[in-house]
Amino acid sequence: VARPRDELLEEIELIYRRRHPAFLRVAVAIAGDVQLGADAVQDAFVGIVRSRRRIRRRGALEAFAWRAVVNAARDRRAARIETDVLPDAEAPSDAEPDDRVRHAIALLPERQRLVLFLRYFADLDYEAIARVMRIRPGTVAAALNTARASVKESLEREEAAV
Amino acid sequence: MTVVDEVRAAVERTVPDFRDHEGDWAAVLASAQQRPLRPHRWAIAVVAAVVAAGTLALFWPTGGDGILERARAVIGNEPVVHVVLRGAPVRVYDLRRHEYRNLPQTREEWYDPELGAHLVRAIGSRVVEELFLPKQYSPTARFPDGTQPYAGVATAYRAALDAGRASLGATETVRGHRVHWIRFGVDFHWRAAQHEVAVDAETFEPRFVRIDRGPVATVAALETFPSGTGDFEPGPVALMGGLRPGHLGRAPGPDLWSGTPSTGPRTPDEARASLRGALWLGARFHDLPLASIREVVHPKREGAPPVGEHLVRGLELCYGSAQRCPVSLTLATHITATAFRSPAQPWPFDPEPGTLVLAERQPGVGYTIRDGAYLTPRLADARIDVEPVLPRPEPGVGFLVRDGIYVTLVARDRPELIAAAEALTPIP
Lengths: 162, 428
Description:
The complex is a heterodimer.
Chain A: H1 7-31, H2 34-50, H3 61-82, H4 99-106, H5 110-120, H6 126-133, H7 137-161
Helix pairs in contact in A: 1-2, 1-3, 1-5, 2-3, 3-6, 4-7, 5-7, 6-7
Chain B: H1 3-12, H2 25-33, H3 42-59, H4 67-73, E1 80-94, E2 99-112, E3 116-123, E4 126-134, H5 152-163, E5 167-174, E6 177-188, E7 191-200, E8 206-211, E9 217-225, E10 260-262, H6 268-274, E11 279-280, E12 284-285, E13 288-298, E14 312-319, E15 327-333, E16 355-358, E17 367-370, E18 373-375, E19 396-402, E20 405-411, H7 414-423, E21 425-426
Antiparallel strand pairs in B: 1-2, 1-9, 1-16, 2-3, 3-4, 5-6, 6-7, 7-8, 8-9, 10-13, 11-21, 12-13, 13-14, 14-15, 15-20, 16-19, 17-18, 19-20
């Protein structure tokens, strides 16, 4: 007997496959480690698949997925902190690590950091970020502006030193 | 290139783009199918459990089975659970002995089903984190700053053994001890953190703990006490992310502060007048002149949870040029509640007197409520005895407390950092 199609599962799979690089990149940025980020994405989607029948608003599925990935990455990061050993983040493949920028990002308030990651690494617009973080789009804009200013300041200090 | 593009490009360089990564959907499905038993399978589970229990009863304690039962048997039956874990030591530089030292790191967890959990983490003799988790939050609370309770051993280990939710893992030799790993999950919202307790193969006493196959912590104690006898007294302060007993019904507030550099003293004389006991490295340190002095102020964040009155007001001294400070120090007194946004601003840590706490790679955001007690999410950055995945030069960032002044030092490398720490002197 053929099993009935699980359309919601197919939709989740589509989001996973289509957006996996972005999910992974944001998760790595949050968790601070490639393996932890990859684990976080898997954790998140395992959770989504398991609980998919409780998802009521199908239209918000991608935001739901983003929230799950962000939360899973934060958990991974928290676990890493808790257990003392901090593996280093993987260096960018095509550039020298910019420690000053990395540092500036690390010191941002968490909300600003998440907004920055979701905007730049996932290319989400303000509305989408607002849905993921459950804040207002105006708050997204303000947080992003402040985060940009902090990073820009670090860049300027770097340039002035050259 | 616009400013936005420039910032975006700089940020994007910090993390690979992973454009060729496709993920592993099959693994997602496989893991999802390993879901703990669903309600409609309870009946089968009950039957299976009865059969399993009967089988175990036949063989325990003389057979090779019964490890989980014996592990449970060595834990007491009183309702309050007390766990003490020892983590990897934190390495510091002793400025008096001119040598490195390792400070022990301990974590103490109290769990009372009637009260919740009380977590205390200490490095050396200093409490660096204290957290109260009301029972309605524990053990699955997600606090706004990302803090997770991770009191899984105290709150869930015995319960998992009692409920048959624990499973037996590998038998290994860990740090010279033959142990059986016992796995149990603790749900933290979107994922189940896989906790493992290693019990001694002979005595079945818990010896080690690890979370998600992470580093191994030693179990120094796992004991139980009668109801109401646990330590749920707050220390000198309650920390951000946690709640004072008087606030047990309230959700914690937002998590971060921000700080603002301001104008202020520009000369050593003004600095000395501005901050009693202000320190410096002289008019010149190594090849670098004292380039600038400015005041840094961190106002209290709005809507903070139960914290004291603000703020950090300190001085930042730059050695180098107006544009670049290869060596800098930041001085602050009476740190209260703040986050630190600049590498040249103080670290939220209260090291033992005469020690320089060494930062590994990039320092992270930290939080201080009042002198002597902290919540430091990147606390582990203080470790330097862990082999990094990518070797990098030892960083020149550290912090210390001297005569009541919190000092954060940034230098070009570790030797220069230590030289600077040893060269600190009051501004004459």
